[in-house]
Amino acid sequence: MKLEEIAAVIQHTDVSPTATERDIRSLCADAIKYRFNGVMVQPCWIALCRKELEGSGVKVCSAMAYPMGGALTRSKVAEMRHLVEEGVDEVDFMPNLGLLLSGKADAFRAEIAAIVEAAAGRPVKAMLELEPLSIPERRAAIIEAEAGGCTYVKNSSGWGVGGKATVELIRFMAATATRAKVKASGGIRTKQDAEDILAAGAVLLGTSAGPAIMRGAGGTNAY
Length: 223
Description:
The chain is of the alpha/beta class and 223 residues long. It has one domain (3-215): TIM Barrel, CATH 3.20.20. 44% of the residues lie in helices and 16% in strands. The chain has helices at 3-7, 21-34, 46-53, 73-86, 97-101, 105-118, 135-147, 167-176, 191-200, 210-215, and strands spanning 10-14, 38-41, 59-64, 90-93, 124-127, 152-154, 181-185, 204-207. The chain has an 8-stranded parallel β-barrel, surrounded by 6 helices. α4 (73-86) links the parallel β3 and β4. The longest helix is centred in the first third of the chain and has 14 residues, at 21-34. The two termini are 22 Å apart. The mean pLDDT is 96.
């Protein structure tokens, strides 16, 4: 693949709790320079990113209910509405996997549907932390997230227990989802990583190593 094709599907990420304004401005500058699909930041940086990226075509994306997913549903819905008010373009959020794993698939799906409704038409991605789950649990998480209206299913938050994106896992996700698209994150640090994961069925990549990938080097950050 050409580097510009990979750049077009990278959501350049810095969701570190220690990220500073300088870090976020640098993130945005890199996204403009390499023409990445978007930046992924914590909610407090949405307004700054909108200013930095104005007119560039780079999307402002944010992580919500992150990284544990155990907030009350009404709190998540309120947070989504706040993100919409801030001007977010896309949102990656943590669903309550504990509900699903407790046999409460209806409640899991209902929470997702409420969050999707609050997004008011913006693309919503469910971070499903799939690595530690059994195959049936992975399948159920994908199917229920899709049924709740998610635009994308995502293998991992990149920070929690979800682990790294692997070819096998992304291929499984792409084969299981019938409508939702697949975003991959975790351990995507080289051009070869990106090519392999995209070939497996992902259509978006979440990584903090975007500039390193564009330079032909390997990223060393955790995400």
